[in-house]
């Protein structure tokens, strides 16, 4: 692509963008009366306009129907969560019955580890990546201690090589081979939150399965961002939050994938509750638990309808647009961002080292040699919302649903302004 660093060129790209009309489906914060340039869709996606309508609908049903809303609501509450499965399945590459929505991400990873981490004296190790998202580190270590084991003896971390910013697939595969029959579980982030790297989930899953381990993925930064084929890759389980690329609202519900081979299996334990009980018999209040024959068996409590409503609104946009179109725009807009960064670096004599490898989704992580948090603050003040990670990295994620090519061009201008000011 022969990109150009001009406003006119960026506007041309916007005109050709098949997704351009979706920008107006989202609400943008404003700085100095202008819509911000929002590069933190990897942290909290923007609010879809439709979200409020969906929440209002629940509020109205609650006001007008009260308890009858469980069955008489415009979208009945008793099986509200089931509406998500068919919409999420194509986003993560699953069968609808393999997907459910419940709780929040770290909670779900805990629940899934109850099912899929059952250490024995011979097979007890867990392979993960170094410097995983802190919640994942705490979650895994606490699970290990819960089993009476020592995290230092159980958790094996794949490391980046000296001087490199990304993980090498070959190093992960070698680690899997080395740990071999002692490995109970491989559990990693499908897209690394820090450097934006997309791991080769297909190959790693296959290798983990070959040594007889379970393989699970934290897809917080992957769901709604990259192509996923969880079923075909033979992934055992996965979970993701919905408030990042999926635009469902702060702290909102998590999605779970549980491969169909584990449905209806008595040898796979679960922590159970009434919402996982056979739906036809749920309200008979019987003493014996009868699991749903799907991923819904992992449900525990009745669903938080007010929280789920905006997620459902957001998923309807995904249903209209579908992942391939998002991915196509993503690749182009991220490539344009990379180009603009390079152009600005040349003009101002700056050094912006992109540490995200070519296996990437929406996010570019940029190492700012010498530029401290000042730059981040300057961008903020000038209406560019980015994300700062210690010690010296900004993360830029122009979500294809609502970011424009003009945003990218304007970002370059603001960035130049910072250096001009110096
Ligand atoms: C965002 C994120 C989380 C957040 O977990 P919550 O339980 O939703 O607070 C967990 N893991 C990863 C990898 C993340 O990126």
TrEMBL record:
Its cofactor is pyridoxal 5'-phosphate. SUPFAM superfamilies: PLP-dependent transferases (SSF53383). It is an enzyme of class 3 (hydrolase). It comes from the Bacteria. It catalyses: L-kynurenine + H2O = anthranilate + L-alanine + H(+); 3-hydroxy-L-kynurenine + H2O = 3-hydroxyanthranilate + L-alanine + H(+). GO terms for biological process: anthranilate metabolic process; L-kynurenine catabolic process; L-tryptophan catabolic process to kynurenine; NAD+ biosynthetic process; quinolinate biosynthetic process. Its EC number is 3.7.1.3. Pathway: Cofactor biosynthesis; NAD(+) biosynthesis; quinolinate from L-kynurenine: step 2/3; Amino-acid degradation; L-kynurenine degradation; L-alanine and anthranilate from L-kynurenine: step 1/1. Keywords: Hydrolase, Pyridine nucleotide biosynthesis, Pyridoxal phosphate. Residues 46-250 form the Aminotransferase class V domain. One of its GO terms (molecular function) is kynureninase activity. GO terms for cellular component: cytoplasm. Gene3D superfamilies: Aspartate Aminotransferase, domain 1, Type I PLP-dependent aspartate aminotransferase-like (Major domain). Pyridoxal 5'-phosphate binds at residues 105-106, 133-136, 218, 221, 243, 274, 302. InterPro entries: Aminotrans_V_dom, Kynureninase, PyrdxlP-dep_Trfase, PyrdxlP-dep_Trfase_major, PyrdxlP-dep_Trfase_small. Catalyzes the cleavage of L-kynurenine (L-Kyn) and L-3-hydroxykynurenine (L-3OHKyn) into anthranilic acid (AA) and 3-hydroxyanthranilic acid (3-OHAA), respectively. This is Kynureninase. It comes from Salinimicrobium catena.
